[in-house]
Amino acid sequence: MAQPFPVPRRCPFEPPPEYAAMREQAPLVRAALPGGEAWLVTRHAEAQQVLSGAGISTSPATPGHPSRAMRPEPPTPEEIAVLAEFSVGHFIDLDPPEHTRFRKLLIPEFTVRRVRELRPGIQDIADRLIDDMLAKGDEAELVADFGLPLPSLVICRLLGVPYEDHEFFQSRTRRMLSVSADDGARFTAMAEIRSYLDALVTAAEKGPEDDLLGRVIGSGRLTHAEIVGVIFLLLVAGHETTANMLPLSVLTLLRHPAQLDALRADPSGWPMAVEELLRYHSIVDWAAFDRVAAEDLEIGGQLVRRGEGILVLGASANRDERAFERPDEFDVRRGARNHVAFGYGVHQCLGQNLARAELEIALRVLFERLPGLRVTAPDEELPAKYDGPIFGLTALPVAW
Ligand code: HEM
Protein backbone atom coordinates (compact mmCIF):
# COMPACT_ATOMS: atom_id res chain seq x y z
CA MET A 1 0.00 0.00 0.00
CA ALA A 2 1.23 3.51 -0.80
CA GLN A 3 2.59 5.55 2.12
CA PRO A 4 0.43 8.65 2.83
CA PHE A 5 2.72 11.65 2.31
CA PRO A 6 3.91 14.15 3.54
CA VAL A 7 4.44 12.83 7.06
CA PRO A 8 5.26 15.53 9.64
CA ARG A 9 8.23 15.66 12.00
CA ARG A 10 7.29 15.33 15.68
CA CYS A 11 10.66 16.10 17.27
CA PRO A 12 13.22 18.88 16.62
CA PHE A 13 16.07 16.35 16.38
CA GLU A 14 14.66 13.48 14.33
CA PRO A 15 13.18 13.01 10.88
CA PRO A 16 9.64 11.58 10.85
CA PRO A 17 9.87 8.08 12.41
CA GLU A 18 8.21 6.55 9.31
CA TYR A 19 11.42 7.23 7.33
CA ALA A 20 13.46 4.49 9.06
CA ALA A 21 10.76 1.87 8.31
CA MET A 22 10.51 2.96 4.65
CA ARG A 23 14.31 2.94 4.27
CA GLU A 24 14.38 -0.61 5.61
CA GLN A 25 11.57 -1.65 3.26
CA ALA A 26 13.09 -0.44 -0.06
CA PRO A 27 15.18 2.32 -1.68
CA LEU A 28 12.05 3.48 -3.53
CA VAL A 29 8.62 3.47 -1.89
CA ARG A 30 5.29 4.43 -3.41
CA ALA A 31 3.69 7.52 -1.84
CA ALA A 32 0.06 8.68 -1.85
CA LEU A 33 0.18 12.51 -2.15
CA PRO A 34 -2.89 14.75 -1.72
CA GLY A 35 -3.52 14.80 -5.50
CA GLY A 36 -1.80 11.69 -6.90
CA GLU A 37 1.13 9.30 -6.43
CA ALA A 38 4.94 9.55 -6.60
CA TRP A 39 8.08 7.60 -5.67
CA LEU A 40 9.87 8.39 -2.41
CA VAL A 41 13.65 7.81 -2.47
CA THR A 42 14.69 6.65 0.98
CA ARG A 43 18.40 5.73 0.70
CA HIS A 44 21.62 7.70 0.18
CA ALA A 45 22.99 6.03 -2.98
CA GLU A 46 19.67 6.30 -4.83
CA ALA A 47 19.24 9.90 -3.59
CA GLN A 48 22.57 10.81 -5.21
CA GLN A 49 21.60 8.97 -8.40
CA VAL A 50 18.35 10.96 -8.74
CA LEU A 51 19.88 14.30 -7.71
CA SER A 52 22.79 13.85 -10.14
CA GLY A 53 20.15 14.73 -12.72
CA ALA A 54 20.78 12.03 -15.35
CA GLY A 55 17.46 11.23 -17.06
CA ILE A 56 15.65 13.44 -14.52
CA SER A 57 13.78 16.74 -14.83
CA THR A 58 13.21 19.20 -12.00
CA SER A 59 10.90 21.51 -13.96
CA PRO A 60 7.31 21.78 -12.68
CA ALA A 61 6.36 22.19 -16.36
CA THR A 62 7.40 18.57 -17.15
CA PRO A 63 4.33 16.29 -17.21
CA GLY A 64 4.11 14.14 -14.08
CA HIS A 65 6.12 16.56 -11.86
CA PRO A 66 5.02 16.00 -8.23
CA SER A 67 4.30 19.69 -7.55
CA ARG A 68 0.88 19.09 -9.13
CA ALA A 69 0.16 16.03 -6.95
CA MET A 70 1.19 17.86 -3.76
CA ARG A 71 -2.10 19.77 -4.06
CA PRO A 72 -5.53 18.15 -3.87
CA GLU A 73 -6.94 20.41 -6.63
CA PRO A 74 -5.36 21.61 -9.89
CA PRO A 75 -4.29 25.29 -9.85
CA THR A 76 -6.80 27.92 -11.04
CA PRO A 77 -6.06 29.90 -14.25
CA GLU A 78 -5.07 32.94 -12.11
CA GLU A 79 -2.63 30.80 -10.12
CA ILE A 80 -1.20 29.35 -13.34
CA ALA A 81 -0.57 32.92 -14.54
CA VAL A 82 1.25 33.86 -11.28
CA LEU A 83 3.28 30.63 -11.45
CA ALA A 84 4.29 31.30 -15.06
CA GLU A 85 5.53 34.78 -14.15
CA PHE A 86 7.24 33.42 -11.05
CA SER A 87 9.10 30.72 -13.01
CA VAL A 88 11.07 33.22 -15.16
CA GLY A 89 14.66 33.26 -13.86
CA HIS A 90 13.77 30.87 -11.00
CA PHE A 91 16.56 28.57 -12.16
CA ILE A 92 16.21 26.04 -9.30
CA ASP A 93 13.20 24.85 -11.33
CA LEU A 94 14.93 24.78 -14.72
CA ASP A 95 16.71 21.91 -16.49
CA PRO A 96 19.99 22.14 -18.42
CA PRO A 97 20.84 23.72 -20.83
CA GLU A 98 18.54 26.59 -19.72
CA HIS A 99 19.63 26.12 -16.08
CA THR A 100 23.34 26.17 -17.03
CA ARG A 101 23.03 29.67 -18.45
CA PHE A 102 22.08 31.07 -15.01
CA ARG A 103 24.37 28.86 -12.99
CA LYS A 104 27.48 29.79 -15.03
CA LEU A 105 26.76 33.48 -14.59
CA LEU A 106 26.37 33.21 -10.80
CA ILE A 107 29.04 30.66 -9.82
CA PRO A 108 31.83 33.31 -9.60
CA GLU A 109 29.78 35.16 -6.95
CA PHE A 110 29.79 32.16 -4.58
CA THR A 111 33.24 30.56 -4.88
CA VAL A 112 35.29 29.70 -1.77
CA ARG A 113 37.59 32.63 -2.58
CA ARG A 114 34.72 35.09 -2.96
CA VAL A 115 33.13 33.92 0.28
CA ARG A 116 36.48 34.30 2.07
CA GLU A 117 36.31 37.99 1.19
CA LEU A 118 32.84 38.19 2.74
CA ARG A 119 33.93 36.65 6.06
CA PRO A 120 34.98 39.87 7.86
CA GLY A 121 31.61 41.41 6.98
CA ILE A 122 29.77 38.35 8.36
CA GLN A 123 31.87 38.48 11.55
CA ASP A 124 31.02 42.16 11.89
CA ILE A 125 27.27 41.48 11.54
CA ALA A 126 27.45 38.66 14.13
CA ASP A 127 29.32 40.90 16.57
CA ARG A 128 26.89 43.77 16.16
CA LEU A 129 23.86 41.53 16.74
CA ILE A 130 25.47 40.16 19.91
CA ASP A 131 26.31 43.71 21.08
CA ASP A 132 22.61 44.55 20.69
CA MET A 133 21.57 41.44 22.64
CA LEU A 134 24.02 42.29 25.45
CA ALA A 135 22.82 45.90 25.53
CA LYS A 136 19.25 44.70 26.19
CA GLY A 137 20.13 42.57 29.24
CA ASP A 138 20.82 38.89 29.88
CA GLU A 139 17.99 37.30 27.88
CA ALA A 140 17.08 37.13 24.19
CA GLU A 141 14.91 35.34 21.67
CA LEU A 142 17.49 33.82 19.39
CA VAL A 143 15.40 33.49 16.21
CA ALA A 144 14.34 37.17 16.09
CA ASP A 145 17.53 38.60 17.62
CA PHE A 146 20.17 36.55 15.82
CA GLY A 147 19.10 33.57 13.67
CA LEU A 148 16.96 35.49 11.18
CA PRO A 149 18.70 38.91 11.01
CA LEU A 150 22.19 37.49 10.44
CA PRO A 151 21.63 35.66 7.11
CA SER A 152 19.10 38.30 6.11
CA LEU A 153 21.64 41.12 6.57
CA VAL A 154 24.31 39.10 4.74
CA ILE A 155 22.15 38.35 1.70
CA CYS A 156 20.70 41.89 1.54
CA ARG A 157 24.19 43.36 1.59
CA LEU A 158 25.33 40.89 -1.07
CA LEU A 159 22.39 41.54 -3.38
CA GLY A 160 21.97 45.24 -2.78
CA VAL A 161 18.46 44.83 -1.28
CA PRO A 162 17.77 47.48 1.43
CA TYR A 163 17.67 45.69 4.81
CA GLU A 164 15.17 48.34 6.07
CA ASP A 165 12.59 46.43 4.01
CA HIS A 166 13.27 43.13 5.78
CA GLU A 167 9.92 43.02 7.56
CA PHE A 168 8.15 43.25 4.23
CA PHE A 169 10.00 40.42 2.49
CA GLN A 170 10.40 38.22 5.57
CA SER A 171 6.68 38.28 6.33
CA ARG A 172 5.85 37.54 2.66
CA THR A 173 8.43 34.72 2.58
CA ARG A 174 6.91 33.22 5.73
CA ARG A 175 3.45 33.34 4.16
CA MET A 176 4.74 31.88 0.91
CA LEU A 177 6.31 28.93 2.74
CA SER A 178 3.51 28.42 5.25
CA VAL A 179 1.44 25.30 4.90
CA SER A 180 -1.32 26.80 7.03
CA ALA A 181 -1.79 29.83 4.70
CA ASP A 182 -4.35 29.21 1.96
CA ASP A 183 -3.21 29.08 -1.67
CA GLY A 184 -4.60 32.56 -2.41
CA ALA A 185 -2.54 34.13 0.40
CA ARG A 186 0.57 32.26 -0.77
CA PHE A 187 0.20 33.43 -4.35
CA THR A 188 -0.43 37.02 -3.24
CA ALA A 189 2.75 36.95 -1.12
CA MET A 190 4.78 35.65 -4.10
CA ALA A 191 3.38 38.34 -6.39
CA GLU A 192 4.13 41.05 -3.78
CA ILE A 193 7.78 40.05 -3.37
CA ARG A 194 8.14 39.91 -7.14
CA SER A 195 6.74 43.37 -7.73
CA TYR A 196 8.91 44.80 -4.91
CA LEU A 197 12.02 43.29 -6.57
CA ASP A 198 10.86 44.40 -10.00
CA ALA A 199 10.99 48.02 -8.79
CA LEU A 200 14.38 47.44 -7.15
CA VAL A 201 15.88 45.96 -10.35
CA THR A 202 14.38 48.77 -12.46
CA ALA A 203 16.08 51.35 -10.20
CA ALA A 204 19.41 49.47 -10.30
CA GLU A 205 19.29 49.24 -14.10
CA LYS A 206 19.46 53.04 -14.26
CA GLY A 207 22.85 53.08 -12.49
CA PRO A 208 24.26 49.62 -11.76
CA GLU A 209 26.61 49.48 -8.76
CA ASP A 210 29.58 47.17 -8.26
CA ASP A 211 27.56 44.53 -6.42
CA LEU A 212 26.05 41.18 -7.45
CA LEU A 213 22.95 42.80 -8.90
CA GLY A 214 25.02 45.40 -10.76
CA ARG A 215 27.28 42.71 -12.22
CA VAL A 216 24.32 40.58 -13.35
CA ILE A 217 22.75 43.63 -15.00
CA GLY A 218 26.10 44.62 -16.52
CA SER A 219 26.67 41.16 -18.02
CA GLY A 220 23.82 41.86 -20.43
CA ARG A 221 23.07 38.14 -20.48
CA LEU A 222 19.70 38.15 -18.69
CA THR A 223 16.42 39.89 -19.39
CA HIS A 224 14.87 42.22 -16.81
CA ALA A 225 12.29 39.57 -15.79
CA GLU A 226 15.04 36.91 -15.47
CA ILE A 227 17.08 39.19 -13.19
CA VAL A 228 14.02 39.72 -10.97
CA GLY A 229 13.59 35.92 -10.78
CA VAL A 230 17.26 35.36 -9.91
CA ILE A 231 17.20 37.97 -7.11
CA PHE A 232 13.94 36.50 -5.80
CA LEU A 233 15.48 33.01 -5.62
CA LEU A 234 18.70 34.22 -3.98
CA LEU A 235 16.85 36.38 -1.45
CA VAL A 236 14.52 33.59 -0.32
CA ALA A 237 17.07 30.74 -0.50
CA GLY A 238 19.70 32.94 1.13
CA HIS A 239 17.94 33.66 4.39
CA GLU A 240 15.20 31.14 5.07
CA THR A 241 17.57 28.15 5.19
CA THR A 242 20.46 29.51 7.27
CA ALA A 243 17.97 31.27 9.55
CA ASN A 244 16.42 27.92 10.41
CA MET A 245 19.76 26.16 10.85
CA LEU A 246 21.22 28.65 13.34
CA PRO A 247 18.80 28.32 16.29
CA LEU A 248 18.51 24.54 15.75
CA SER A 249 22.31 24.28 15.81
CA VAL A 250 22.54 26.28 19.05
CA LEU A 251 19.92 24.05 20.68
CA THR A 252 21.67 20.87 19.54
CA LEU A 253 25.13 21.96 20.66
CA LEU A 254 23.81 22.97 24.09
CA ARG A 255 22.39 19.45 24.43
CA HIS A 256 25.87 18.02 23.79
CA PRO A 257 28.01 20.04 26.23
CA ALA A 258 31.12 17.85 25.96
CA GLN A 259 31.21 18.31 22.19
CA LEU A 260 30.62 22.06 22.60
CA ASP A 261 33.46 22.28 25.15
CA ALA A 262 35.78 20.53 22.68
CA LEU A 263 34.86 23.10 19.99
CA ARG A 264 35.48 25.98 22.38
CA ALA A 265 38.88 24.50 23.24
CA ASP A 266 39.79 23.88 19.59
CA PRO A 267 37.87 26.13 17.17
CA SER A 268 39.49 24.38 14.19
CA GLY A 269 36.73 21.77 14.69
CA TRP A 270 33.95 24.19 13.68
CA PRO A 271 33.88 23.44 9.91
CA MET A 272 33.44 19.72 10.61
CA ALA A 273 30.81 20.46 13.28
CA VAL A 274 28.83 22.52 10.75
CA GLU A 275 28.78 19.58 8.30
CA GLU A 276 27.40 17.34 11.04
CA LEU A 277 24.75 19.90 12.01
CA LEU A 278 23.67 20.08 8.35
CA ARG A 279 23.50 16.28 8.03
CA TYR A 280 21.79 15.75 11.39
CA HIS A 281 19.03 18.31 10.83
CA SER A 282 18.53 18.05 7.04
CA ILE A 283 16.10 20.96 7.30
CA VAL A 284 15.20 21.06 3.60
CA ASP A 285 14.42 17.30 3.54
CA TRP A 286 12.35 16.72 0.34
CA ALA A 287 11.13 20.32 -0.10
CA ALA A 288 13.55 21.17 -2.94
CA PHE A 289 13.96 17.60 -4.18
CA ASP A 290 10.86 17.23 -6.36
CA ARG A 291 11.74 15.58 -9.65
CA VAL A 292 10.18 13.65 -12.52
CA ALA A 293 11.67 10.87 -14.68
CA ALA A 294 12.41 12.30 -18.14
CA GLU A 295 12.93 8.76 -19.50
CA ASP A 296 12.44 5.20 -18.26
CA LEU A 297 15.05 4.63 -15.54
CA GLU A 298 16.21 1.93 -13.16
CA ILE A 299 16.75 3.27 -9.67
CA GLY A 300 17.70 0.91 -6.86
CA GLY A 301 16.42 -2.05 -8.89
CA GLN A 302 13.05 -0.36 -9.43
CA LEU A 303 11.80 0.57 -12.90
CA VAL A 304 10.65 4.18 -12.88
CA ARG A 305 8.67 5.14 -15.97
CA ARG A 306 9.01 8.41 -17.84
CA GLY A 307 6.56 10.93 -16.35
CA GLU A 308 6.51 9.38 -12.87
CA GLY A 309 7.07 11.86 -10.05
CA ILE A 310 9.92 11.39 -7.55
CA LEU A 311 10.58 12.99 -4.14
CA VAL A 312 14.01 12.45 -2.59
CA LEU A 313 13.84 12.25 1.21
CA GLY A 314 17.04 14.11 2.10
CA ALA A 315 16.45 13.62 5.84
CA SER A 316 16.21 9.86 5.29
CA ALA A 317 19.26 9.66 2.98
CA ASN A 318 21.28 11.55 5.62
CA ARG A 319 20.33 8.94 8.25
CA ASP A 320 20.98 5.96 5.97
CA GLU A 321 23.02 3.37 7.87
CA ARG A 322 24.48 2.22 4.51
CA ALA A 323 26.25 5.60 4.17
CA PHE A 324 26.88 6.70 7.79
CA GLU A 325 27.88 4.75 10.89
CA ARG A 326 25.59 5.32 13.91
CA PRO A 327 23.54 7.75 11.75
CA ASP A 328 21.15 8.85 14.52
CA GLU A 329 24.02 9.90 16.77
CA PHE A 330 25.12 13.55 16.72
CA ASP A 331 28.92 13.56 16.44
CA VAL A 332 30.75 16.78 15.51
CA ARG A 333 33.90 14.76 14.79
CA ARG A 334 32.21 12.51 12.23
CA GLY A 335 33.72 14.33 9.23
CA ALA A 336 30.99 13.20 6.84
CA ARG A 337 30.94 15.64 3.95
CA ASN A 338 28.97 13.28 1.70
CA HIS A 339 25.64 14.34 3.20
CA VAL A 340 22.94 15.62 0.85
CA ALA A 341 21.79 18.57 3.00
CA PHE A 342 22.90 20.88 0.15
CA GLY A 343 21.68 18.43 -2.48
CA TYR A 344 23.94 16.80 -5.08
CA GLY A 345 24.62 17.16 -8.78
CA VAL A 346 23.40 19.89 -11.14
CA HIS A 347 21.30 21.81 -8.61
CA GLN A 348 23.60 21.41 -5.60
CA CYS A 349 23.24 24.52 -3.42
CA LEU A 350 24.84 27.50 -5.10
CA GLY A 351 25.17 29.29 -1.74
CA GLN A 352 26.74 26.40 0.17
CA ASN A 353 30.12 28.11 0.76
CA LEU A 354 28.33 31.19 2.03
CA ALA A 355 26.00 29.14 4.25
CA ARG A 356 28.97 27.24 5.73
CA ALA A 357 30.81 30.50 6.47
CA GLU A 358 27.72 32.06 8.08
CA LEU A 359 27.05 29.07 10.31
CA GLU A 360 30.66 28.63 11.32
CA ILE A 361 31.23 32.31 12.16
CA ALA A 362 27.85 32.88 13.82
CA LEU A 363 28.10 29.81 16.08
CA ARG A 364 31.74 30.35 17.04
CA VAL A 365 31.20 34.03 17.88
CA LEU A 366 27.97 33.36 19.79
CA PHE A 367 29.45 30.65 22.01
CA GLU A 368 32.69 32.60 22.53
CA ARG A 369 31.00 35.84 23.54
CA LEU A 370 28.17 34.29 25.59
CA PRO A 371 29.92 31.52 27.54
CA GLY A 372 26.93 31.03 29.86
CA LEU A 373 24.41 30.67 27.01
CA ARG A 374 21.46 28.41 27.93
CA VAL A 375 17.95 27.70 26.65
CA THR A 376 15.24 28.82 29.08
CA ALA A 377 12.33 26.64 27.89
CA PRO A 378 12.00 22.84 27.93
CA ASP A 379 12.35 21.08 24.53
CA GLU A 380 8.66 20.13 24.43
CA GLU A 381 7.63 23.79 24.70
CA LEU A 382 9.81 25.05 21.85
CA PRO A 383 7.60 26.15 18.93
CA ALA A 384 8.71 24.38 15.74
CA LYS A 385 7.69 24.51 12.08
CA TYR A 386 6.30 20.98 12.02
CA ASP A 387 3.94 21.91 9.19
CA GLY A 388 6.39 23.88 7.02
CA PRO A 389 8.34 22.63 4.01
CA ILE A 390 11.64 23.78 5.57
CA PHE A 391 12.12 22.76 9.19
CA GLY A 392 13.17 25.13 11.98
CA LEU A 393 12.16 26.67 15.30
CA THR A 394 9.94 29.73 15.35
CA ALA A 395 11.43 30.89 18.68
CA LEU A 396 14.31 29.94 20.98
CA PRO A 397 14.32 31.78 24.32
CA VAL A 398 17.83 31.97 25.79
CA ALA A 399 19.69 33.59 28.70
CA TRP A 400 23.39 33.87 29.62
C1 HEM B 1 22.04 26.06 5.61
C2 HEM B 1 21.73 26.71 4.57
C3 HEM B 1 21.27 26.13 3.25
C4 HEM B 1 20.75 24.90 2.95
C5 HEM B 1 20.51 23.74 3.90
C6 HEM B 1 20.48 24.89 1.52
C7 HEM B 1 19.98 23.81 0.82
C8 HEM B 1 19.84 23.75 -0.55
C9 HEM B 1 19.46 22.58 -1.28
C10 HEM B 1 19.12 21.24 -0.67
C11 HEM B 1 19.47 22.89 -2.61
C12 HEM B 1 19.26 21.94 -3.77
C13 HEM B 1 17.91 22.04 -4.43
C14 HEM B 1 17.70 21.04 -5.52
O1 HEM B 1 18.36 20.02 -5.65
O2 HEM B 1 16.78 21.28 -6.30
C15 HEM B 1 19.81 24.30 -2.71
C16 HEM B 1 19.87 25.01 -3.89
C17 HEM B 1 20.13 26.36 -3.94
N1 HEM B 1 20.54 27.18 -2.90
FE1 HEM B 1 20.79 26.63 -0.98
N2 HEM B 1 20.82 26.11 1.00
C18 HEM B 1 21.31 26.89 2.01
C19 HEM B 1 21.78 28.19 1.91
C20 HEM B 1 21.79 28.93 0.77
C21 HEM B 1 22.29 30.28 0.67
C22 HEM B 1 22.91 31.09 1.82
C23 HEM B 1 22.09 30.68 -0.61
C24 HEM B 1 22.51 32.03 -1.12
C25 HEM B 1 22.41 32.70 -1.95
C26 HEM B 1 21.47 29.57 -1.35
C27 HEM B 1 21.11 29.56 -2.67
C28 HEM B 1 20.69 28.45 -3.37
C29 HEM B 1 20.39 28.46 -4.79
C30 HEM B 1 20.45 29.66 -5.71
C31 HEM B 1 20.03 27.15 -5.16
C32 HEM B 1 19.62 26.64 -6.53
C33 HEM B 1 20.81 26.06 -7.24
C34 HEM B 1 20.49 25.51 -8.61
O3 HEM B 1 19.35 25.13 -8.89
O4 HEM B 1 21.41 25.45 -9.41
N3 HEM B 1 21.31 28.53 -0.47
N4 HEM B 1 20.06 24.80 -1.43
How is the CATH topology named? Answer: Cytochrome p450
Give me the CATH superfamily: Cytochrome P450
| Domain module tally | 1
Q: What CATH architecture label applies?
A: Orthogonal Bundle
Bound molecules: protoporphyrin IX containing FE
Query: Biggest β-sheet, characterized?
Result: 6 strands, mixed
Order of helices and strands: EHEEHEHHHHEHHHHHHHHEEEEHHEE
CATH class: Mainly Alpha
Keywords: Heme, Iron, Metal-binding, Monooxygenase, Oxidoreductase
Protein name: Cytochrome P450
Organism: Actinomadura luzonensis
Region (Disordered): 54-75
Give a description of the structure.
- Keywords: Heme, Iron, Metal-binding, Monooxygenase, Oxidoreductase.
- Belongs to the cytochrome P450 family.
- The chain contains 16 helices and eleven strands.
- It has 400 residues and is an alpha+beta fold.
- The chain has one domain (3-399): Cytochrome P450 (Cytochrome p450, Orthogonal Bundle).
- The strands form three sheets. A six-stranded mixed β-sheet has the order 1-2-3-9-6-4.
- Helix 6 crosses helix 8, helix 9 runs antiparallel to helix 10 (183-206) and helix 14 (270-281) packs across helix 16.
- It starts with a strand and ends with a strand.
- The mean pLDDT is 94.
- It binds protoporphyrin IX containing FE.
- The site of protoporphyrin IX containing FE (HEM) has 25 residues, from helix 12 and helix 16.
